[in-house]
């Protein structure tokens, strides 16, 4: 049996009506650096290296429903973001434009929606995951 080719995840990509605006939100939220900045594609990378986040234009973007509702656009993926202070991280996320989701399924996790409706979770390093 031959060895499979080397594969490395480079980034997770989010659709958005305006990729620069959404990338700006995550840049402020995470403190990451823009490494590629095009009209329809923006990539952020963490300071220490590793997989990044990319944002691409989707002109017919529809925000997912959280929690899921039958017949509506559903979330396909979300970010889990480890934090050292849940309350402070939540305040920071809201200051950048995030909205606390109306449904919170766990006491030690906070679900937020980014400016175009992608859910993401904040959780304590020693708590949830």
From TrEMBL:
PANTHER family: CONSERVED PROTEIN (PTHR35908:SF1), HYPOTHETICAL FUSION PROTEIN (PTHR35908)
Gene3D superfamilies: 2,3-Dihydroxybiphenyl 1,2-Dioxygenase, domain 1
Annotated protein name in UniProt: VOC domain-containing protein
Recorded superkingdom: Bacteria
Ranges of residues in domain VOC: 8-129
Source organism of this protein record: Actinorugispora endophytica
A Pfam short name: Glyoxalase_6
